[in-house]
């Protein structure tokens, strides 16, 4: 398990979890379409990551983008295999929506957005369960 906290002007942070390096970057909050720009200073961003297997993880947070790279010998690239949004009910994972390539940068980055201004009712992101894989 690992966590990160970022301010709007902080550089990306690298954390090691399992066989991967997570590069966590601050994402500027977005307003709703047609709304005036959000005033600065922007709120801080934070995320927690939990490994549940060699290539399986949970993430929860706000206003961060996460890219992945391998941290052990083998194929030199890492990609996102699957991403589900969901929640825990009575200790069991209950998926609500499967994300696809257009929501994961074609399998290259995870986006966690949950600032109030980012909430679009049918696109709210809370907890995500995801898998990673390696390739050449």
In short:
By secondary structure, the chain is mainly β.
Overview of this protein structure:
The chain has 136 residues and is mainly β. The chain is built from no helices and 10 strands. Strands 1-4-5-10-7-8 form a 6-stranded antiparallel β-sheet, with no helix packed on it. Strands 2-3-6-9 form a 4-stranded antiparallel β-sheet, with no helix packed on it. The radius of gyration is 15 Å and the shape is globular.
Mean pLDDT: 88
Portion of residues in beta strands equals over 45%
Helix content range: under 10%
Ends apart, CA distance between termini? 27 Å
What is the overall number of helices?
0
Query: Radius of gyration over alpha carbons?
Result: 15 Å
Largest sheet: 6 strands, antiparallel
User: Low-confidence segments, ≥5 residues, pLDDT <50?
Assistant: 115-125
| Shape type | globular
Order of strands, main sheet, comes to: 1-4-5-10-7-8
Number of strands: 10
Q: Output the structural class.
A: mainly beta
Task: Encode the helix/strand succession as letters.
Answer: EEEEEEEEEE
List strands and helices in order, with pairings.
Blueprint: E1 2-6, E2 13-17, E3 20-26, E4 45-53, E5 56-62, E6 64-70, E7 77-89, E8 92-99, E9 109-112, E10 127-135
Antiparallel strand pairs: 1-4, 2-3, 3-6, 4-5, 5-10, 6-9, 7-8, 7-10
């Amino acid at each position: 398990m690992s966590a990160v906290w970022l301010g709007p002007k902080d550089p990306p942070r690298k954390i090691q979890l399992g066989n991967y390096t997570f590069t966590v970057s601050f994402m500027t909050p977005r307003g709703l379409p047609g709304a005036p720009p959000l005033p600065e200073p922007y709120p801080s961003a934070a995320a927690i990551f939990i490994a549940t297997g060699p290539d399986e993880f949970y993430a929860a947070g706000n206003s961060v983008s996460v890219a992945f790279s391998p941290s052990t010998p083998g194929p030199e690239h890492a990609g996102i295999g699957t991403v589900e949004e969901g929640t825990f009910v009575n200790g069991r994972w209950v998926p609500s929506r499967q994300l696809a390539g257009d929501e994961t940068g074609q399998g290259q980055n995870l986006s966690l957005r949950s600032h109030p201004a980012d909430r679009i009712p049918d696109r709210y992101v809370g907890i995500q369960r995801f898998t990673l894989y390696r390739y050449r």
